[in-house]
Amino acid sequence: MASEDVKSSETAVSRIVNLAEEAKIASEGVKAPAGIAWLTITKSLLAGGVAGGVSRTAVAPLERLKILLQVQNPHSIKYNGTVQGLKYIWRTEGFRGLFKGNGTNCARIVPNSAVKFYSYEEASKGILWLYRRQTGNEDAELTPVLRLGAGACAGIIAMSATYPMDLVRGRLTVQSGSSPSQYRGIAHALATVLREEGPRALYKGWLPSVIGVVPYVGLNFAVYESLKDWLVKSRPFGLVEDTELGVATKLACGAAAGTVGQTVAYPLDVIRRRMQMVGWKDASAVVTGDGKSQARLEYTGMVDAFRKTVRHEGFRALYKGLVPNSVKVVPSIAIAFVTYEVVKDVLKVEMRISD
Questions:
Q1: Do 165 and 223 contact (CB within 8 A), yes or no?
Q2: Were 158 and a residue from 75, 116, 123, 126 both cysteine, which residue would form a disulfide, CB within 3.0 to 4.6 Å?
Q3: Where are the alpha helices (DSSP H) in the chain?
Q4: Residue 123 is assigned to a structural domain of this protein
Q5: Is 331 exposed, middle or buried (0-12, 13-18, 19+ CB in 10 A)?
Q6: What count of Cα atoms within 13 Å lies in the side-chain half-sphere of residue 290?
Q7: What CATH number is given to the structural domain containing 63?
Q8: Does residue 281 lie in a domain region?
């Protein structure tokens, strides 16, 4: 299944990239000088990377707690909520424990965010060109549904490109001081997974990740851009006086986008985390932290993971960690969008998300 997932991901990504490139070439007609084009692309990728790193570091403690809540053993509960969970980590692992796995997280999220934002811009251009060609209206604008499609394309490309880092980040985040075996870092974790579980293991949980990223990233971009567009055009309650929204308003749009996206996609994120732990011989000890040998649930696929999770722990298990995740997502997505646009302004990149 993992092999089929990888092959299908490569095919989908290739088609999306080719379509976007063809549409871009056709819509632009005349290409910009190579040097200028590469400089613009580099600046756009840099802005996306900075946005991802800043936003994720700001909420790193909540990110770690969310993953611990998602994968903890239901018979050995250590984390009962956001405040209690953060206090427990502080008490048992200290300040550094709150940011455990953040280096790996940033190593994954920086390129992921860079690719995601840039892919969204390119996918938006391609989809808008196709839409105008189909309708015959050269002045047509992106609709919320089209923005959802562009965001979905961006999410699939970014997720597929950086998925092995996501798997390693999850395992580094979950392991604790009582784990019998320790990953010493990103490179060691990748090498260990390849040696002990094989290359297919790097894409465990890829399918629910992609299925989850379609509504999550798609809704993030669609809600954010549509809200901004609505505010500029309707100017409700006198919130907007010109065509340029303030930072506070953009943060509010980003917060709304993050809330909608993560609520819809959260169960798939839980299943992805659990599938990523399958095959890790020390996963049960890491999750329970009690030093005892415990049986691990094995999943044959995404549907099986859903079924076993609901049967053994109930439907509510699909939303474990939702509260700290909600507290994390709201500022994280908001900060990412605003940071991206601010950095692009500083770097003087003409191309913006909304263009």
A1: no
A2: 116
A3: 2-28, 34-58, 60-71, 82-98, 102-135, 144-174, 186-197, 206-234, 247-277, 283-288, 302-313, 322-346
A4: yes
A5: middle
A6: 12
A7: 1.50.40.10
A8: yes
